[in-house]
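User: Hey, quick favor. My workstation is busy. Could you predict this chain's structure for me?
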Amino acid sequence: MPRNDDVTGRSARSIPELETDRLVLRPFELTDAPAVQALAGARSIADVTLNVPHPYEDGMAEDWIAMHVPGFELGVLLPLAITLRGTAELAGAISLKIDPESNRAELGYWLGEPYWGRGYCSEAALAVLRYGFDELKLNRIHASHFARNPASGRVLQKIGMQHEGIARAHVRKWDGYEDLVLYGLLRDEWRQGCVYPSR
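Assistant: No problem, here it is.
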């Protein structure tokens, strides 16, 4: 399906589109910028994520979207919009930050507050996990969350990621330090079929 060109003039069609029962994960378009700013601009989102700024100022969403195609073409980023099947409304974002040298990636995501508690994040994360292992042939996918945000941890548990420990006071967020809870999954574990029964 054709997509709008991003601000670099290159088509975002090279970024894959993934589908689940309730979601379509697709490349971001510049027309998504107002919705990104509105959803990610909530303090509740920035509070539990490391890289979402607050306040989320005008132009930030456009600049962020403009980085997606170059990052994908370099093989270091798989950025996808989480949209609802049927209505096509934007609910959040999910990505793999890829380290080609080590053949691993970090899974990251955020979901707008109106969409919390519906299982959308787990559904999206499972699709991206599958793509990372089956299509990108990654050896390892890992993720982390603030210890005070157990809801994010439940997403990782539901998709079969393995708890690997806690990095105490590992990152600074605003005026304090955050413990990070670490999760990971290896491709061999994924291929053995012991991770997620319904896949």
